[in-house]
């Protein structure tokens, strides 16, 4: 857990809400979590199967590209790496895309991430949280209930899909929802990687 404020960020104690489209309303009967892409066999897990996976508790800093940072939110969830037990990855898999709902489309939102950055306790599909002002509570529908990805603090928060619906394993990097719209593929707040290089004001320095 890091106390460092990345360049161009300010600290907030509130947890703002930002997303495109409607808030997804959980329906256990139709919900599942899909593991697909460059895997030997694709898998869909029910809500019950997902919630039976081992739990991890982690305290993470969140850095939103709109310049707010929230330190030390404690999350309970399922570590990204727990899902790897269900699939046999093609040996050349290096990237993933994590999907979430957008206006009723379960694959409408997505963000790309490098696989090797997601093996720790700080890459978490979360369902509960607390901080110094709040006791344990479920992630609210607006923050991504029933399951929401929180990326390690070395990525801006748009890499964290709300209403998470699956993971696609990929050999080559591929832009997600915001990356297709000019945001950074790598998105490291400490290097201030907000936008794609081609539109960065630093490009020709
Ligand atoms: N499904 C989905 N997930 C999403 C988004 C979205 O529009 N749809 N927006 C992203 C963006 S741009 C941000 S900054 C964070 C905001 O998370 P919060 O509202 O919980 O603070 O969610 C990310 N996850
Ligand atoms: Mo965002």
From TrEMBL:
InterPro entries linked to this entry: OxRdtase_Mopterin-bd_dom, OxRdtase_Mopterin-bd_sf
Highest taxon, organism lineage: Bacteria
Domain Oxidoreductase molybdopterin-binding, residue spans: 22-178
Pfam family, one: Oxidored_molyb
Name the record gives this protein: Oxidoreductase molybdopterin-binding domain-containing protein
